[in-house]
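User:
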Amino acid sequence: MREGWKKYNLGEVAELKNGKSRPEKVGTYPVYGGNGILGYTDKFNVDNETIIIGRVGAYCGAVYFERNKSWISDNALYAKTHKGFDSKYLFYLLKYKNLNQYAGGSSHPLLTQGRLNELKVEVPPLHTQTRITSILSALDDKIELNRQTNQTLEAIAQAIYKEWFVNFNFPTSEGKPYRDSGGEMQDSELGLIPKEWRVGKLGDLLSFRNGKSSPERNNINGYPVYGANGVIGFASIYNSTDRTIIIGRVGSYCGAIYYTTQKAFVTENAIIAEAYNQNSSLFSFFLMERLNLNNYKVGSGQPLLNQTILEGIDVLLPYKDIVDKFEGVLLPHFINIQYNEQQSSTILTIRNALLPKLMTGEIEV
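Assistant: Predicted structure:
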């Protein structure tokens, strides 16, 4: 043990309590369960800095941190640090400890106050706790900022798509909203659509092919590897070009959809969709998002999507100029989103590597 570090029972560092049943009324305070925020309510049972710990079930031992007032439900415990201990430091320490290993029961894991109170922890002096917290928090804050930025960019993109291709208020050559400024409409199998647009098949926009067996992967470098559930690692090879749509092909993520502006490797659990006109790739992505491809799966025990199903889906086909304009407006947003995601992935890897070294005093701060 490093100089100045002391060994404690967790109960000497913080007071632990069980949460309470979630209030029914909706409000502005977050409600935490074992898997994080469940919703919002009009009451709170903790304020200021609180550490939340999943108490039971699949998320037993998961750890969260909340700075403000919140409600902790009966599926979680919460910890309030005693004087002389930094709350955020304890949060990181408990993440490092992997609390799930201390749960009792196999079919229904459970963490109790008694078991946690006796957990042995090694803690440095308060000034060292604060320095360690500042390092890890700076990394987490950047990840959170990237997440919020991407959320905003995605919301803007969704709003533009809806206005142009659902409400049909794409900009005319005079810069006016088409439908609201009296643009001519026509009947179709999909309802009223702008004149000169037509109904076709998804296969008119995109070619589809299955991914390949997953290559050897690592956690940081190379091309992103996509499975049905998104990025699962990185590899030194790729099998799709940039501006590609990836669709979950099988299992619980059947119909999940992703978009990448860079080369990637797509595994056999997913389908690669590539636009015949590259400038329609983002339009096609948003179109499929609104289709909810999970509705087109076949099979009950093992849900499946295949290329034939996708090719045959009826879709609305706008004229090329407006699709090109949509791509030009939104592509820079998605390049930024992808950059932020890559940066966050790198930062998370660095943080995860630092965490055990800082929590054990291997790195002196």
